[in-house]
Amino acid sequence: MSEETLTGGNSVGAVRIGDTVRKRALPWTPTVHALLRHLEAAGVDGVPRALGFDEQGREMLTYLPGETAGGRVPWPAWSFTDVLLTQVGHWLRRVHDATAGFVPPADARWFTGRTMEPGLIVGHQDVAPYNAAVLDGDRLVGFFDWDSAFPSTREYDLAVAALWWVPLCPPGVAEGLGFHDTDDRSRRLHLLLDAYGYDGDRQAFGATVVHRTRRQANFFREAAAAGDEAMIAMLPVAGYMEQSAADIEAQPDDFWVR
Ligand SMILES: Nc1ncnc2c1ncn2[C@@H]1O[C@H](COP(=O)(O)OP(=O)(O)O)[C@@H](O)[C@H]1O
Ligand SMILES: [Mg+2]
């Protein structure tokens, strides 16, 4: 069967063969596959199924049908609709509830060094329109690209969803992505949190978004400084993230608490 190169990735690159996707395996891929199998057993949809490894040692996953924002700008219109934002909140809640009980393999390794502990969930950690599959412009199929999943608090993973789907990136960046209604961001933030069923402190959640965004920018910069090619390419994103953190931090209290 022929191989079709899939575009829109930021790092490893993927190809499609029939209904499967193949990607270069990373040191933590076996742990991620254990996670994907756990989600499958828990009946969580919208997650690629792990199919093992092919003869070239590439990981094999099921293909999620649909459109993705990929590397295109502006992003598709669905990236900024209430319908999708709500579905993202529902999907994330199902994933978090199901991963709260995940017991990683004894030799588990994740993209970051964090280990699973009671009270944590395993987040996708990159839930953005460029990792989403959407059908008919209004139906979230799910999210691919689980390479950077790792254990965290619920808020730490929700922060990524808020950053890219509300979106909370700086208005200048959001404009380029196709989001123009800056004044609608607080309402959309609460729509996402309500869809998730978030009952924590929303002011504190704001602080988590700032902290996580800043931390990710630092992570990109450190990895780039160490010579990681993919992270060197991500340096402009690190800049947006620092700008986002400053911008989010400057929001008034009533942005976070209704
Ligand atoms: N399971 C999947 N189902 C559908 N498309 C996929 C799947 N995995 C990857 N893709 C496609 O391949 C592209 C690159 O894959 P991704 O896992 O996002 O790689 P990267 O880590 O490089 O961002 C995605 O933008 C998407 O178009
Ligand atoms: Mg990707």
Overall tally of domains: 2
**H/I helix tally:** 9
CATH architecture term of the largest domain: Orthogonal Bundle
Q: Report the mean per-residue pLDDT as an integer.
A: 95
Radius of gyration: 18 Å
| CATH fold type of the largest domain | Transferase(Phosphotransferase), domain 1
Short description:
This protein folds into two domains: 4-62, 2-Layer Sandwich (Phosphorylase Kinase, domain 1), CATH 3.30.200; 77-256, Orthogonal Bundle (Transferase(Phosphotransferase), domain 1), CATH 1.10.510.10. It has nine helices and nine strands.
Descriptive report:
Helices cover 43% and strands 13% of the residues. With 258 residues, the protein is α+β, with helices and mostly antiparallel strands. The chain has two domains: 4-62, Phosphorylase Kinase, domain 1; 77-256, Transferase(Phosphotransferase), domain 1, CATH 1.10.510.10. The chain has a five-stranded antiparallel sheet with strand order 1-2-3-5-4, covered by helices on one side. The chain has a two-stranded antiparallel ribbon with strand order 6-9. Strands 7-8 form a two-stranded antiparallel ribbon. Helix 3 (154-165) packs across helix 6 (202-225). The chain is globular and about 55 Å long. The structure holds adenosine-5'-diphosphate and magnesium ion (MG). Magnesium ion (MG) is lined by residues 9-10, 130-131, 145.
